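Still learning. Show one?

>
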Amino acid sequence: MTTAVADRPRLLRSGLTIAILAGAVVAVSLGVYARAHHAAGKPVFTLGFSGVLQMKAWLATIVLVLALVQLLTALAMWGKLGVHVSGPAISVVHRWSGAIAFAVSLPVAFHCIWSLGFATGSARVVVHGVAGCAFYGAYTAKMIGLRLDGMPKWALPVLGGTVLALVVILWLTASLWFFTRSGVPLT
């Protein structure tokens, strides 16, 4: 067995380890900053919504829908929908839906961290804060994993699934909560 072949599993593990460690650094850094930062308690902008919570709830809903597009296009590309769909159109939709979802998530995260900070008032809020930090960490790991050669075949689906699961948790702990409160204006 040649040295290159013998070193391959170690190199695969080290690439995946690098991606996961980078994601962990991002997640922990966001959490530490959000906890240490004194929350401003007011929005910087609302993008035409009546308040920051309304903006965050609707933008997070857009992110959730785009994340579901990501799931469907990934399943199609991997042949998990009963048919294998390939070609430039499906990969363009996958890539752009992810990029747009990430961009739409940024004002939500900014206001979570800057305006509200990392609060610990209830279990829902703690879960939401941890999931938000973990989302950006998982997203970082996935993006780095896409650029590394020789990643294990299971790594990208697991990283992508983690990102999707965190988006769902974030939506459930904030947007759904917001939309189901009585007396809360939806615009």
Q: What stands out?
A: The chain has a mean pLDDT of 88. The chain has one domain: 14-179. The two ends are 65 Å apart (CA to CA).
